[in-house]
Write a structure and sequence with these properties.
Endonuclease that specifically degrades the RNA of RNA-DNA hybrids. It catalyses: Endonucleolytic cleavage to 5'-phosphomonoester. Keywords: Cytoplasm, Endonuclease, Hydrolase, Manganese, Metal-binding, Nuclease. It is found in: Cytoplasm. By secondary structure, the protein is an alpha/beta fold. The protein has a single domain, classed as 2-Layer Sandwich (Nucleotidyltransferase, domain 5). It has a 5-stranded mixed sheet. It is globular.
Length: about 210
Amino acid sequence: MESSLFAGGATLIIGIDEVGRGAMAGPVMVGVCAITASLTDFPAGLRDSKMLSAPKREKLAPILLVWAPTAVGAASAAEIDEFGITACLGLAAKRALIALHSAGIPVGDSTVLLDGAHDWLNPALTSKLRVITRVKADQDCASVAAASVVAKVERDALMVQLDAAHPHYGWASNKGYGAAIHMEAIRTIGVTDHHRKTWVKTPTGRTE
């Protein structure tokens, strides 16, 4: 995909993917990865993060940081409650793109490859970018796959840290998704500041 875009005149491609969109606790994170036509060799084993085991992701992530400029942006559970998940995808991506810009990447000149069928990025930006949406781009676009890996590794590490402070929810293993141990802890203990409270139902069936 990237090769065809470069052949068509693109000078810089930024792959973007999100992680944690469907979790009940923790932030949503968006990874970005900027590549140019000179990057002809992709790191061995690069795949969509969901197709890699945790050890393989953790081994690959530092290689990707050297291979191409990357960044990860986050939007907190509180922000998700306030603004909604779609707006927070854009907010997290905007923060990641600002980090790339601060590192000297000419973000405004880029063509963005966005995983999915909906452009949730441009509504969050003051200066619009050329965005190409592609379903399953994380499976067949190297820049998007790289973005997914770095974002997944960073978010997983954060959820492990949060698990140490809140061990009853099993976040080290379920990463904030609705596993049985997580749901039972919500029922018996309640929610934390890291929960998306508008997403969580209490035993009465009402949201917190």
